[in-house]
C-alpha cells in the first residue's frame, strides 16, 4: 500500500500532534470487520480477543466497526456479556478500553443461506459506513469466517453477491478463511473452485495461525539476514531437520470432532508443513507475498507423496494411574476408532540443497510436555577422536512455544585446567533478552497483515494444492483403517516405535547429559567485597 512522502519536519509552534492512531491503514481508509460465526467458540476465544488487542494497542482505527453475524438470536447486551467472559482485563484502564471497544461491536442474526438476511446485513454495514466513514475515505470490508467448512461456499457466495462494497467510495474486500481447507486433494480443489468463482485470489486470506507466531515469522530473518546461517544451510552441513509439536492433553471430551480429522490433518498437513517450507525454501527475490510463496511452492513440488512406510502412527491410552482416560475412553469417539492421535513422518526434498537430508515431522496429543520447536541437527565433526570427551552434534533450536527462544548447542571446553569438552549453548531467550516486550498473539499478527493487505503469511491456492497432493494418498489409507496405531500411555513421549524410527534415520542423541533450561544455566558469582575507597569494576 503506497503512502505519501512525509513533509519536511518543521518545529511546531504549539504542542506536538499525536501520530495517527492506526499504523496499518492510511488516513483515507475506513474499515468494517464482519465476523461470521460470531457466537461460536473460535470467535469468542480467538477472533474478538485479537481484535481487542489490536484496538488497545492502536493497530485498529478507533472508528473501525466490528459486526458479528451468526444464526443465534442474541440481544446486544447479551452478546457483549459473552465477549467479556473471554476478553480479560488486568487494570482499570484496560477495562475502560474494553468498554470503548465493545461500543464498536455490533451483532446481527441471520441464516447462512438466506439472501434476504445478507441484504439486511449489507444495509446495516452501509448505515455504519455512512455514520463513521469520513469522505473521501474509502469504505473497506473484512469478512472473517469463524465458521464450519460446510457453510463456507454459501456464505462466500452471498457475501460477494449481496454484501460487497459498492458505490462512489467503495474500497477493497478481503475474506479470511479458517482451516480446514478441505478434507483431501479432491475436496480442497472443489472448495477452491467454488471460492474462485466469486472471489479473486488476492481477496482470499487462508489463515494458518502458526504462520502468525513470532518465531515462525522470524524464520526468514534468521535465515536470510545472517551470513553465518546462510553459509551452512544445506546438505553438506545439516544432517537432519526435526519439527515437533507436542500437547500434554488429550481430546478432553471433543474426540468426536477430532476423530473426523486426526492428528495428521489437524496439525501435520498444515502447521508443520508450513514451517518446513520456510525452513527449506530458497531466498525469495523480495519479501512481497508472491515472491515468498513462490519459493514455498517450489519446496512442496520437490517433495514426493508420503508413504505409510515412512510414518509412525500412535493412539494414546489411559495414564498409568488411570487418572487420565485414553482416546477410546472418550464417549464422543466411535468405538474401535483407528484415528491416530500421534504421527511422525519423514520427508525428503529432492533438490540440490536438501538431497539426502531427512525432514522429520512429529506431532501428538497426551504427551509429556507442551512444546513446538524446530531442531536443526548438524553433521558430526570430522576427526572428533582427537578430543578426550565424546562430542555431541551441534544443534540450532528454534523454540516456537512456549518460551520463545533461539539457541545454538555447541561443544565448549570446561573452564579450568582440564581439556574436557561439554555441551553449552548460545542462548537468545526472549523472556530474558526482550524482557518487558510484548509478543503479540498469532491471530493479532495475522489480522494486522490482513489490514495491510500482506498475504505473505497466508496460504495461496497452488500451495494448498501441492500440500494436499503430498498427504492425500496416506490419508485415504488411514481413513480406510489400513493401519492400527500403536498404543502409547497418556503423558509419555509417544509410541515406542519412535526410537527405532529415529535411529534408522541417523538422528543422534546427545552423547553427554544436557537439558536446556530456557534461561542462562550458569550462575555468575557475586563480586568479592571491595574496600570502601575503591570503586567496583563495571566489567
UniProtKB/TrEMBL annotation:
MF-aspect GO terms: glucose-6-phosphate dehydrogenase activity; NADP binding
Catalyzed reactions: D-glucose 6-phosphate + NADP(+) = 6-phospho-D-glucono-1,5-lactone + NADPH + H(+)
Keyword NADP attached: yes
Any one of the GO BP annotations: glucose metabolic process
Domain Glucose-6-phosphate dehydrogenase NAD-binding positions: 34-218
SUPFAM superfamilies according to UniProt: Glyceraldehyde-3-phosphate dehydrogenase-like, C-terminal domain, NAD(P)-binding Rossmann-fold domains
Pathway assignment: Carbohydrate degradation; pentose phosphate pathway; D-ribulose 5-phosphate from D-glucose 6-phosphate (oxidative stage): step 1/3
Gene Ontology annotations for the cellular component aspect, listed alphabetically: cytosol
Domain Glucose-6-phosphate dehydrogenase C-terminal, first and last residues per copy: 221-506
InterPro entries xref list: G6P_DH, G6P_DH_AS, G6P_DH_C, G6P_DH_NAD-bd, NAD(P)-bd_dom_sf
EC number: 1.1.1.49
Region (Disordered) residue spans: 517-539
Stretches with biased composition (Low complexity): 525-539
Top-rank taxon: Eukaryota
Enzyme class: oxidoreductase
Key words of the record: Carbohydrate metabolism, Glucose metabolism, NADP, Oxidoreductase
NCBIfam families associated with the record: zwf
Annotated family: Belongs to the glucose-6-phosphate dehydrogenase family.
Function, in words: Catalyzes the rate-limiting step of the oxidative pentose-phosphate pathway, which represents a route for the dissimilation of carbohydrates besides glycolysis.
Name this protein carries in UniProt: Glucose-6-phosphate 1-dehydrogenase
Source species: Allomyces macrogynus (strain ATCC 38327)
